[in-house]
Amino acid sequence: MVAITDARILDTLRTVKDPDRNEDIVSLGMVNGIVNKDGNIGFAIEVDPERGPRLEPLRKAAEAAVDRIPGVLSVTVVLTAHSSGGRQRPAPVPPSARPRQAAGRDLAPGVNAIVAVASGKGGVGKSTTAINIAMALAESGLSVGILDADIYGPSLPRMMGLTEKPASEDGRILQPLRKHGVKCMSIGFLVPEDSPTIWRGPMVMSALEQMLRDVAWGNLDVMIVDMPPGTGDAQLTMSQRVPLAGAVIVSTPQDIALLDARKGLNMFRKVDVPVLGIVENMSTFICPHCGGQSDIFGHGGARAEAAALGVDFLGEVPLHITIRETSDAGNPVVVAAPGGPHALAYRSIAEAVWVRVGAAAKAAPRIVMT
User: Fold this and answer.
1) Least confident of 45-54, 207-216, 271-280, 339-348
2) Average pLDDT, the chain
3) 344-365: buried (b, 16+ CB within 10 Å) or exposed (e) per residue?
């Protein structure tokens, strides 16, 4: 088999032209950050910020071109743009296209957009996905918060490596903890890690509302909410009480997980919350020793389900020991291994989410107050 070199990747990308400049993206110097490891390829395409939201076809064309190279196992392509400070960031959603604040909203009033990351069942990697999306958005220069709304099984403290308790200057408003540039809040900061939360529904909703209303979130571009698994009272009331800009559904590829993911998706549709798309987690297993792939849970099921349900497919993340180890260590893979293919996968998903937040704002959801 012919080795997949960076030079060959660049030669292939010379066939992809910028639609506005009529030159290939390599000659224009738009390709950077190539990651080439055991057939898993990742790279970024640098674009002007104002063009970002409409260059998704260019990203897909580059991804498809490299995917056709013999021996390529996976391709992750991210659109990036330079901010005035020189840091790369996803092409931003224009302020005029962002979600409007709900009239009279008293929950996290300074947060511009709230995005729920949800699943129909537990154990599909929803929390890992939510945290790495938040890390990727913060890395891009956005002001980001993450709320762990899973009252019964909070995982944010462990996955972010946070052990201290939030402070309060006035005894009423809590200061969120901060890690990797992200503001964080979880019931897990307030109770011992091994202590069960034995609460009924009204107590759960009261706690969630307090973590939105009585926390000094300040002004944020986006808040990622790690939702509880399932479609129970807490999920439904959260969807109705909080003006969500949209929801991201996380699933693994096998049929039973997709069945539950479909229930979660339909719940958001019933309360008029835009579904931004589906993420396929544990998409394939990559052996840490030989680099071989095995589709333990199947592969491509979430992509097919997204097409069947008429929603966007946001991307896929493999089942890999690095993701598990970094999560357990409280150092998410986007931060721990920023140049690796897994971080690139999460960045691509975060970029897709951020672009779709603006699209969802054009038809803001009807908020049902209870």
Assistant:
1) 45-54
2) 79
3) bbbbbbbbbbbbbbbebbeeeb
Residues sharing a CB contact under 8 Å with residue 96, sequence separation 6 or more, in sequence order: none
Buried b (16+ CB within 10 A) or exposed e, 19-56: eeeeebbbeeebbebebbebbbbbbbbbbebeebbebe
pLDDT confidence of residue 222: 93
Torsion over CA: 210, 109, 350, 164 (sign): negative
Q: Which residue has the tokens 């910028």?
A: 18
The answer to whether residues 35 and 29 touch, using CB atoms and an 8 Å cutoff, is no
Kindly compute the dihedral angle of the four CA atoms of residues 129, 131, 135, 136, in this order, to the nearest 10 degrees.
Answer: 20
User: Which residues are registered as beta bridge partners of 222?
Assistant: 144
Contact at 8 Å (CB) between 294 and 285? yes
What is the sign, positive or negative, of the torsion defined by CA atoms of 110, 143, 41, 251? negative
Q: Where are the beta strands (DSSP E) in the chain?
A: 31-37, 40-46, 74-82, 88-89, 114-118, 144-148, 177-179, 182-186, 222-226, 246-251, 275-280, 285-286, 293-294, 313-316
Q: Which amino acid is at 131?
A: I
CA 124/CA 283 separation, integer angstroms: 11
- Letter string b/e over residues 169-190, b meaning 16 or more CB atoms within 10 A of that residue's CB: eeeeebebbebbebbbbbbbbe
Cβ atoms of 22 and 9 within 8 Å: the answer is no
Strand partners, 296: 298
Question: In a 10 Å sphere around its CB, with 0-12 CB exposed, 13-18 middle and 19+ buried, how is residue 219 labelled?
Answer: exposed
Dig out the tokens for 258 from the structure.
């997709």
**How far is residue 303's CA from residue 315's CA, in Å, rounded to a whole number?**
8
Cβ-based burial of 1 (10 A; exposed 0-12, middle 13-18, buried ≥19): exposed
| Structural tokens at position 182 | 């992200």
Spatial distance between the Cα atoms of 79 and 5, rounded to a whole number of angstroms:
22
Rounded-to-10 torsion of CA 188, 144, 181, 332:
60
